[in-house]
Amino acid sequence: MAQSPQRPNGTLQTPKADMPHHDSQDPQEAGPSLHVGGEIFPVVEIRTTGDVILEVHFENTGACNKSIPSEDIRKFKISKSSIPSPRIFYRVRLETLNKNSRYFQHLLGPSFAEGSAIAKAFASLAQSKLNPTEIEAGRLPRIKIVDEDAATRTIGRETIFSDMLRIMHGAEHATRPFTLNCLAVLVVMADRYNALPTVARYVQKTLKNFKYPVTLDTKAEEALRQKILIFYHTDQAMRFASATKELILRGSSIWSSADEATTDFQTAWWDLPDGLEGELAHRRACVLRTIASVQMQCLSLYSSKDRQCKLGYDSSGACDSFQLGEMVKFLTRKDLLSLVSFQAASPDDTDDYIWPEIYSGDIENLVGLLRQCPSYQINHYHSHCGLRSKLLPALDYIKICVEIGIGIKFGRSRGDWKNNAWRETSKARSEKKAFWVTNEDGEHVDVSGEKTRAFNFALVNQRATWGINDLGGEKNARSLFTAEKWNWIREPEDNEKALKSRFMRADPALN
Question: If DSSP states are collapsed to H, E and C, what string results for 2-67?
């Protein structure tokens, strides 16, 4: 998230650990120099006709865990030397900065001392009949800013800052190789300095063939998060929808981690902006809750007093007991069901009491586990009984809805996704006033008029109409995953009677 322009905190002094820094990416631009505080510093000429010097102090701390080039961070850790915080001097055009960055437009405007100082310096040069675009760098007005490492935790980001300035001035980036981390740092800096429109156009045009790394498992989560941040800030809607879908399916280490304070989780891509982080976590929870509802309804049905086997055989009661046992056996073996004794220890006694763990794996793997449900029957007359016949159609529909509708999508504006957010805003939640009463069955019911969002699988169109070309697919997916109650029993009572009659006609022994 971009910060408001701030004035530098006092006059910057050259740290003792600082050495004159040469931009390794631009040896040909290392000629011009400045004498500052008894030291000579090279000037990076973004424009040889620049009329101001931008002095940037890149503050680095021990929290940095990345570097550009990538191998530098390892060298610092091995040598145990202090991490430098370089001061870099860039020759740029004031008009170009103001045109492409609202940060500099405000900072260098009349409201800030920096802008007033530059205006006075230009007036003084004009009185001396000097053109600032033609004089040496040492006579140009200097602007001092501080770039902290909090958002990227990356050493060497001064090279990416140079690239951002080049892009503002209509040139191409110079950093080679230009990795995913380089692109992520560029986008974060563009957001920080309110230069996203210019950088986004550059990424869409010049870097349209950039090869983003494949992120197939949770080990590549940071790269996936960097892609999401890049796609979001550079208006790549289709890639953004695909990447957010992937993160929802794979899950995040910070959504299930007890230690969110670690420095590994403190960069911009580990806390996605504009409410995206919470929305992604919420969507994953919705999908998992929906999948869990299928097995929970089947367990509830087979553990209730109502007969589930409708064939009318003497073995129907035994069939229900057999199927319930098979369900419990299968689900516990796959670690998808936890059995907690009624004599459980106090929840405060964490040493003795084991709470069921939240599923943190891949959702596609979870669906695959459930599809392994065996089709065991008590005998061959009960081939339609059990979990599998109810589970597979539900999983097929869930899979289609996952493919169609769990990724976050936006249109012309990035903020469009909020119009179809699954997560209610705090304002919407506060406006709901529930009024609970107890009905004749002893159940607590909200009679405030707010309808419970319910999903009924029996009302879903026939399977032939499912698919990614369904115009209402996204709406249906949202309705499914944001429901509060689910009914996965698809066969109405008359179909069960017809099924029973077919079974009886098929077996002469039953006639």
Answer: CCCCCCCCCCCCCCCCCCCCCCCCCHHHCCCEEEECCEEEEEEECCCCCCEEEEEEECCCCCCCEE
Instruction: Dump the DSSP string for 465-501.
Output: G-STT-TTHHHHHHHHHT-SEEE-----HHHHHHHHH
C-alpha 181/C-alpha 64 separation (Å) is: 13
Q: Helix, strand or coil for residue 353?
A: coil
Other residues' Cβ atoms within 10 Å of the Cβ of residue 146: 17
Q: H/E element holding 142?
A: strand 142-147
**Distance, CA of 313 to CA of 153 (rounded, Å):** 69
CB 267 within 8 A of CB 152: yes
Handedness of CA 328, 398, 371, 239 (dihedral sign): negative
Backbone angles phi, psi at 281, to 5 degrees: -65, -40
Q: Per-residue pLDDT tens for 232-290? A: 999 999 999 999 999 999 999 999 765 555 555 679 999 999 999 999 999 999 999 99
Gap between the Cα atoms of 449 and 435, Å rounded: 9
User: What span, in angstroms and rounded, lies between the C-alpha atoms of 242 and 230?
Assistant: 13
Whether residue 86 is preceded by a cis peptide bond, meaning omega within 30 degrees of 0, is no
Q: What pTM, to 2 d.p., does this model score?
A: 0.84
User: Would you say 481 and 406 are in contact if contact means Cβ atoms under 8 Å apart?
Assistant: yes
| Residue closest to 310 by CA, chosen among 497, 135, 475 | 497
